Amino acid sequence: MNNSDKSKSYKWFVLALLTIVYTFNFIDRQILVILAEPIKAELNLSDTQLGLLTGLAFAAFYVTLGIPIARFADMNNRKNVVAASLAAWSLMTAISGSVNSFVQLFFARMGVGIGEAGGSPPAHSMISDYFPPKQRATALSIYSMGIYIGILIGFVIGGVIAKNYGWRIAFYAIGIPGVLFAALFYFIVKEPIKGQSDPGGIIKENPTLKEVIATLLNRRTFILLAFASGFHAFGNYGTGNFMPSFLMRIHNIDIATIGYVLGLTAGIGGAIGAFSGGYFSDRFRHRDVRWAIWIPMLAGMLYLIPHTVLLFTGNANLAMTTILFTGSLNAVFIGPAIAVTHSLVNARMRAFASAILFFILNLIGLGFGPLVVGYLSDLLTPTFGDFSLRWAFCFIYLTEIISITLYYLAGKNYINDLKKVEI
Question: Domains of the chain by range and CATH?
Answer without folding.
Answer: 3-418 (1.20.1250.20)
